[in-house]
## 1
Amino acid sequence: MKLSMGPQHPVTSHFRFILDVDGDAVLNFEWDVGYTHRGIEKIAENRIYVQNIPVVERINSYCDSIGTTLGYVEVVEELMDIQIPDRAKYLRVIAAELNRIASHLYAVSLVGISAGFETMLMWTINDRELILDLLVKLSGQRITYTYPTIGGVRWDMPDGFKEEALERLGYLEKRLEDYYRMMAWNRTFQMRFKNVGILKSSDAVGLGIVGPNLRASGVKVDVRKDEPYEVYDRFDFEVPTGKNGDSFDRASMRLKEIEQSIVILRQALKDIPNGPIKCSPKGSKVPPTAPRGEAYSRVESARGEFGYYLVSDGKSKPYRLKISTPSFRNLPALPFLCRNIPLGDIPVIFITFDYIPLDVDR
Amino acid sequence: MLGLSFVELIELFIKVLIFPGTLFSLLFSIIVIWFERKFLARMHLRIGPLHVGPFNRLGLFQPIADFLKLVQKEIITPSKANNFLYRLMPMLAAFLSALSIAFIPYALDPSGGYWVIFYTPLSLLVILVILTAKPFIMVGAGWAANNKYCTIGALRAAFQLLAYEIPIVLSLVGIVIVARSFDLAKIVEAQSSVWLIILQPIGFIVILIGMMAELLRRPFDIPLAEQEVVFGWPTEYTGVQFALVMVSEYFDLCVTASLITILFLGGWSGPAIPLLHDISPMLSGIFWFLLKMAVITVIIIMGRGVFPRLRIDQLLESGWTILIPFAIIQILITLATAQWWLPLIGG
């Protein structure tokens, strides 16, 4: 029996899966993407460089918009050869890590609901609100911040931000213990997630998986460590990896990464230097045009590696902006894992990869 | 009329319309729906229903408001559905669930009998037969709706209910051995000195788990799994038909809680409550019955906040390989230890 799951379905968000179902077993899995295609790469060719920041933010608007915009801003800065002040770099790291925590909490909440565990959904979504509050203080917005801008960041930290952030991070660290227990001590949770959707490290590398999903399979790859951008080389943090590469590892990988983000945030909040937050003093502006040439940047967003390839013909608008997004690169894993499994495992495997359809379709 | 005297007729009307009939079962559904929402909200660190009804921040009348909303809605039948079956099944579900209540004794009657709508010495068997009819309704409704999610959900429900009826029936065997009767009232009387939960703890756990699976409560709500099959067999139902499905679900919960109270917790037996006992000894019995029922209901509801959902193969496997052996072990223990428990129940 052909079962068309989505794009209007409680769990597949805006994806459509076409499943061959025999009773309760899934024999074949195909995905059909494109429901949320907006043509962002084409739109970007018709806007000037600064105007493109909110446009590319819509690639990944509700989860990790700092990570998304950061990559674009960096590629433009590389092309224009702009050096930004230290304080701006630190502020970008702080915003990016806060956003990573928010995004991972969202991912963990969806992991809970993928097996009908509503308590996990509610608890993590509740705590995500604390981080969003901090980001509101920093940027003025809850989810679409447009915080990094070409040549620095848009706003400075408000007074008292540092103390409040440290306090909330301390609370979150305590709550992480609860989440670990929710996963590791709950036998039903383990029954549903352990040994489900095992992705071996060789397969993961072969399929081109990126981000936390690749690390859950035991491959230690993180752009923040391998090719540090901003000031990530100044912080002392670890890259957590999983062992088995099953759904449980992928789910708990998010919690481990939140832990490391807290470590980075503590150091960043402590070390942040004083100074300007934009490369140019008041009055003078960032050049509106980029010189002829091309540039590439990679950033580690919450879902994995974002790649921006920018070609300029010397005019005020980009000639071409090619975006490589993590969810799209993780997509080959689904048909690979979702064959000859029970129907009940489909949401578990799909959700633990933390896909976001906006990101896949662009 | 029916060969009953006037007093008996009034009594029958009270039983059918008020307690334990229509009014009680509807009130039970409404209170349990409200309690479930509020209780789960507390577990989730939410607030839950807030504004409808008297007291501030309680949202007491929220289930009633929801029900009124459902009744007002248009009844939509999918174009390729089997019209007759599709419309019949929700009514049949609610009717069958309500039917079981007629056979459950809730207290001792002041005149010497039992407070039950229809007394029969085979009441346990009758309720089991009604329980067995449930998969047919689900498969019928799931097939009639002509929706793939409904069909998958219905088949899952059939698998699950059939697999979990067996351990339930096997555990009931142990009770029938002790009480030497299929009569629920006799089972309660057999527990006058010691409750069966103490004599048969394994049987109690098997029945509790089995009944949770029969009621499709989490972690056993696989046929209704939202993330997989949207809402299982009732996916297509709207408005009053959906309300009927919901009501039948909570009637089933009422029956189950009553049944477990009778089988394991000694039914209406308990020390006399001073004030209630003065009015009528029956009220005291009803009080104890409802209290025990509430405890069982809370335990059954709590699963939704604590567990993720199981997978259908894990569920069937644990049903066949864990629950059934344990139920059989309970029967063997009951038979082997007869010389110790026989004096306790006055045999």
## 2
Amino acid sequence: MFELTVISPVLLWTAIAIYAASFVAFAFDLARRSQVSADAQTVREAELVGVGGRGGAALPASGTGLVADAPRRFVMARIGTSLMVLGFLFHFAATLTRGIHAGRVPWANLYEFAMIGTLLILAVYLVVLTRIDLRYLGTFVTGLVVVLLGLSATNFYVDVTPLMDPLKSIWLVIHVFVASLGTAFFALAFALSLLQLLQSRREHRLADGAEKTGPGFLRTLPASDRLESMAYRFAIIGFILWTFTLIAGAIWAQDAWGRYWGFDVKETWTFVIWVIYAGYIHARATRGWRGNPSAWLSIVGFTAVMFNFTIVNVFFKGLHAYSGLS
Amino acid sequence: MSSSRSEINENKDAVSHDSSDPLRPSDHVDGDDSVTQPRLGVVGWLRWGWRQLTSMRTALILLLVLAIAAIPGSIFPQRMADPNGVTQWERDNPDLFPVLDALKLFDVYLSPWFSAIYLLLFTSLVGCVIPRIKHHAKALQARPPRTPARLKRLADFRAVERATTDAATDAAATIDIAQKQLKALGYRVERYDSGRTFSVSAERGYWRETGNLVFHIALVGVLITVGVGGGFAYTGQRVLVEGETFANTLLDYDSMNRGRFVGDGALTPYSMRLDSFDVTYQPFGEPGSGQAGDFSANVTVGENGQERSGAVKVNHPLDVAGDKIYLLGNGYAPTITVRNADGDVVYKNSVPFLPQDNNLTSLGVIKVTDGMPEQLGLLGFFYPTTGVLESGAFFSAYGDLTNPTLTLDVYQGDLGIDEGTPRSVYVLDTTGMTKLTGRTTDVESIELTPGETADLPNGLGTVTFEDESPEGAADASQSVKRFASLQIHHDASSVWVLVFALLALGGLMLALFVPRRRVWVKAQAQGDAVALEYAGLARGEDPTLGAAVDDLVAGHARLLDAAGITTAVEPDADAAPDEVAVPEEAAVHDAEAGAAPDSAADPEEPGPSASDTPKVD
Ligand code: HEM
């Protein structure tokens, strides 16, 4: 068993390093997007007038020099994605060895929550990548994962210890896993909502004929309402998983603590997050709240998720004392 | 994008009398735009107020207010979850406490303001849902709307021409086939033929609105079952020392909370004896050393004159007569005997000591009320595995019984229990008492190991720490009895809460994932060709509408080919929107790009305000 206690952290730190490299590659990709779109601006401006605007297209539709340029343009994104996959494999191996070492699911303390949570963010992202080109989120995803994993591995690391009695339950497997999966979807929705706000600002400036329209890479991204509808799709999947988490948590609390709901700190925050996202879904259907205001709700919602995961776990006192830190 | 498509409805004439669209609150994005002036007079204002309350915007704002209002309860300790935390907070902030307490910040979830928010929200919810139920019931019986005159103007439009020798007959036949095809795809279909134009109108996704309504109603169900169920629920606590028996009567509980409808005779008579309490510890030197686990309170339950054994464990409550019995805590209960100067036993009991840390340093109180010249109070600390700090103070190094020590300080005077005010058995109020041993006195605290007896000061008598080990025990591991703190909980409504919660989850999935859409297929005989038109219209979020229309077109062509009705001709390059031809990855961006807000507005596209939602009243 001695080896496993060493192997898992080593694998994890390797993964973090690879993710950091992937982050750099994705950052270069964004910079390159700005560059390319700046080069192409003159060409495209002429085109915009003619075609009536294809401003949001990632791949220009018809034959300008840009099409030939496209493969070169995405080299950095390709490298970033490949590194991310490589990092994911190490990360997965680290999580797996941790689980084998512990002889249980590897999500029973804060260090492990971070490990599985970020793993799921990447898994969801990589699966989605096979269907939709979201590589412009690469910097966000790798950045978030490096920060969360790095912080947890340095501050939250704990040795494998036997589970406390309340955690010995099938609900540990289900409830925590689904919560982490929901978080992964919320994270992607958050990133898209953020971009949506930037994009919408750019669109307004364009409409006003402003010179400066914000970061250049935005020009290569989908239009804001397209970003909004993608954010929404991630958010509703996250919301359903979160609803399930809430119910599963209540069932577990009934068994472990003798009541299904008691407004324990963690329960309260889970509820608050659920209500915020319910608000978000309503906002998307309410006149005057669609667009930017609803995007803010998605951003607030994910901020609450992160708050719940970090601050509430570490600093708030409650029954959910399972961070493993003392 | 698809959503903005859903707002499009240029076929106002064609479908304005259609009532199959779900009724939405007036400010819903798909909703009615008309501004209603409140009529003067009380009734008018009431109606106006009701409309405001049941509007989407109000619901949204109440939701956000609810989220914010729930937060203070996580910052301040709550009486319902952490009463000791509240006491502690009061001690730390004596000035601020009364103010915040008056604002109910320590009872947030029972406070009038929190209740007001969720009650308003649920009133709004009910007011919103009831008309929608009526409306949806009608929609479920309605036929799909008439085919719009100009399908071309819909965003998801495809046109195909097929060659034929008998255009008039084949035009009708193609629609017959489309009708069957759509029906097989789960659409509700209706034919609208006139002259040489044949069309089928189809609609699907009624489950979306059904799911939405089920979800919202189920939330009301959750609220009501929680509220009503609480009135019939009871929760009691009881500490049981090994060997003790408990009878399920109101008198035998240490504390009891019961709902307002729980009568005195509501408790089922049964008894429960704690035979033994199991616990294991992580051995020294291993990760998590000293951590206790695998708790099990082994009990014998007596019910209807029969006895059976069972175990109460964390995560595994024991079911007895519809009650659920939970293990809340555990600890040591040293057995202590006090004798007076004459050698008479004036006190003998196994006293539960409350654990103070993970290694079970425990604190307990012994109250000797009779048989002594004055009442005696003993304040005790118990260390299951005793260690000594450099200062000479004791601590417990491990939770298990390795070398237990009990220390006692003696107080003499008035215990204050005769005044009728309830006193906790775990607290010694020393105000009316004199300290006889320990710090600040000349006499050292009493220290005992199991089996030892010590003299009380001033010749008052003796105190014995009984050794409970069975005959011939080799070590101290069974020298002190343990206790289990049990919670007996009865709540028949919880299963209904769960049922409603799961209904809500199911409804939610339908409401969010079932696409609600209308599709039309129209055929016109034109010389020796049949001109086919396909169009789709989303009702609400529907990201896959475009693909669905494409599939419909392709499937229809296959069916026509198979049936030998008309023959395909090269598609007219202009008629097919570019979406059809764009490969998957690019389509994702490209399909949307055409309608990007910074593009020149499409003159064909009406604003989102147009709507075919019928008026509410
Ligand atoms: C306890 C309060 C409420 C909660 C937690 C809640 C939650 C939700 C959720 C999660 C959805 C998304 C599912 C769906 O689209 O069907 C939704 C949709 C909806 N809710 Fe509520 N709701 C609440 C109160 C209300 C109220 C008071 C109204 C009416 C004013 C309302 C009207 C609607 C409507 C019209 C939709 C459909 C939105 C769409 O078309 O996308 N809800 N609600």
